[in-house]
Amino acid sequence: MLTPMPKPMPAPRPSPSSTDSTTRRSCYGVLVTTLTAACTLALTTTPGTTTAAAREAPSETAADRALRAFLDHGPKAAVLTAAHRGQWRKAPENSLPAIEAAFADGAEIVEVDIQLTKDGVPVLMHDETLERTTNGTGRVADITYAELRALRLRVGLGGRQAALTEHHVPTLADAMKAARTRGLVNLDQAWREREAVMGVLKQTGTVRNGLFKSRAAVPEVRAFRTRHPDALYMHLVDDDNAGSVKEFGDAAPPAFEVVFDDVKDAVADAAFLKGVRGTGRVWINSMRDEFAARHTDEASLIDPARGWGRLIDTYQATVIQTDNVEELKTYLAKGPVNQVPPGAVRVQGEAYAPGEEGVAYHDTDPGNRGDGPGRPGDGVDICDHDGAVVVCWMRGTEWLTYTVDVPRTGDYTLRARVSSPYSPAGTYRVAFDRGPASGPVRVVNTTAHHAFALQGSGVTRRLNSGRHTLRLSLDDKVPQNWNLDYLQWEPVRR
400 by DSSP, 3-state: which? Predict the structure, then answer.
């Protein structure tokens, strides 16, 4: 049962009793020139009048609003969304289109990863090597930017079998220019080259947009912030350096990224998080199990109380970094997401019909090869991919049966939520009530085992209301290496 979601909080507004202190905070000098100008006007213009300076002042941008929101860590501060490696579901990770898509989908912050080329150009790349995300080989640090520029990025999260695109590896300068009016940029893996990165921010006029982060010793961080008082900074804390929060004293950064792989970790303790929340924003990553003790994106799509809701209500999160930007924004605004569409039927992959081998299913190897909660004694392979419980280790000739309760007679089309980093990933066929099987349905590469996508099948059936039996079978003599999260039969709209 879903935990009721509180009404979304409005953007933070200063209360009449705190106008002076709020004005001073939002007029935080060199960080936001346009905000400073706006605050000056607010202090010097009488109601009902418009000065020439006000008429000529640039309008507030999305980046202005994102910065103001990020610097506000008051009790009513809205939860912000950070897009992990940009919106990689719509464009290659760490690409300019991924950055633009993330902001367009509502993220206030986009996370990117930074490497330096042989000739010292900061570029966007997560790995130190080129193989996963481009058609190149070797280390980023061993080639010039001109050589890197000639390479092409792969779709999504990449992988050697992911399709190539026409997009290229962008420079950090390109990325910051793209973000200048749109929002903030979390500069991951940038600390080692922080002076070179800071130089790019100054050259592009985006110092206010870039967010540095590290888990470096506090004196090292303090020295950097002294040299660059206008730089935004966030400190990463886990159990190994939890004491650094107090070490900052009155000069705490505006946010702390809190990482815990167990709810018993010291940094997951309520008192510790309350202390962090009192000094700045609490940033938590929900992409993978190990970042937030299994309170993941995938868990959130099943039940927000297991993921985003728990991170906000129990662990004080006011920034959540996600691989599911649109879903998180929808949740923050409206509540639970990933609901079954009206009139549709969804069957989880692991919820196959009861029965033994050869009756309810056929699996080519004994036992559960996965790490998920398979049925005791059954041989179906069940995996847990960061909260998504799926059928995995697919092999040719295997099959599963499901019970499907159709609510209304009509035409239905099949979609399946699947994942695979391979091309080809595999094919399957479906049959209803012992009838003839469909033609082969191809599973399309999603670029990672944990990158799930709802894919159409092209299979449409006329189904009467009531209970049906569905059989999903895997073709033999073709590669089969994919994961099944769920099957969804949706009414055909005419």
Answer: strand
CA atoms of 426 and 409, how far apart (whole Å): 31
Measure CA 300 to chain center.
12
Query: How confident is the model over 173-191, as pLDDT tens digits?
Result: 999 999 999 999 999 999 9
Distance CA 209, CA 197 (A): 12
CA 155, CA 65: separation in Å to the nearest integer? 31
Amino acid, single-letter form, for residue 158: G
The CA distance from 331 to 308, in Å, is 9
Length of the chain: 494
CA angle in degrees (0–180, nearest 5) for 197-157-135? 80
**Nearest of 336, 326, 332 to residue 107 by alpha carbon:** 326
**Domains in the chain: boundaries:** 80-334, 345-491
At residue 39, the pLDDT reads: 36
CB–CB of 22/42 below 8 Å?
A: no
What's domain 80-334's superfamily in CATH? Answer: Phosphatidylinositol (PI) phosphodiesterase (3.20.20.190)
Tokens 């933070």, residue located: 12
pLDDT score, position 11? 40
136 and 154 in contact (C-beta within 8 Å)?
no
Specify the pairing of strand 441-443 against strand 382-385: unpaired
d(CA 435, CA 217): 67
In contact, 230 and 211? CB cutoff 8 Å? no
Angle formed at CA 354 by CA 349 and CA 356, multiple of 5 degrees: 105
Domain 345-491: give its CATH superfamily. Answer: Galactose-binding domain-like (2.60.120.260)
Burial annotation 200-230 (CB, 10 A radius, 16+ → b, else e): bbeebebbbbbbbbbebebeebbebbeebee
Instruction: Give the whole-angstrom CA distance, residue 274 versus residue 279.
Output: 9
Nearest-angstrom CA–CA distance, 102 and 91: 10
Q: Report residues of the chain scoring pLDDT below 70.
A: 1-58
Report residue 459 as tokens.
């299979």
